[in-house]
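Milestone M4 deliverable, item 7.
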Amino acid sequence: MKKIVQYTLLAIFLAITPATWAQHTLGITGGLGASTARFYPKYEMKPLIGDMNFGISWRYYSLPRFVGAIGVDLEFMQRGFSHGYSYSSSIDDRGEEVREYNFYSRHLNSIMLPIVWQPHVYLAKNHVRLYLEAALTFSYNFGGDYKYEDTGLSGSYDWRLERDNRWNYGLAGGGGFALLFGRYELGVRARYYFGYADLLRNMNKYYDNATDGAENPFLTTPLRSPIDNLNLSVTLAYRFNKEGFDEWFYKPPKRDRSSKEFRFQQGTSTSGR
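Output delivered:
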């Protein structure tokens, strides 16, 4: 995965040459989000809200216009999950069990690298851009902390190579809009990150939960533990061409409709009687 990141950054460097600057934008992003984990077997979960994210983005706008842009983002992102690690139960007036869960919450930091395809359309005489997004993502996880909400016990999370996966990958999708003025784009973007790699090594690979510290609340490690998050961000980008992108003025070549001369020759036939 490290080589994929290195090759991606090298491709960006080679693509941004003086001859092609006019079709590029470079921008910054920042916003808030919510995250959770998809554990299997399933646990009682609740989302963590208020995760911070910020980063830089690069886009290249290609022809024709409806193909849109391709690019790469480099983001710092807070993520995590909160799950009910224990509960107390009671019986209500209808004779049904009611559970009160005690939650363990964990926050972690990620460096996220989405490789983005962004089809779009322009409106209002090229002053508004609407777009969708699809991305392949790679991330590196580090740092973070944990907290037991019922007891208040908390601390820094101790990453262990044999238990925790620092490198993750997944998909992302979303959309947004941008207002174009001068050389700048100011917009709002919503993006959902769908994790595929597990945050924790599963019980087939890691057996030492009983000897772990308070940072690990699991009696047995889940079989699956990818993380998902939804981010809402504000974007500001600088366009290297003040005159606008070539795709703004692009018109498909017209068909050659030159007239062709067709000659019809009516055959004659004679019949003898």
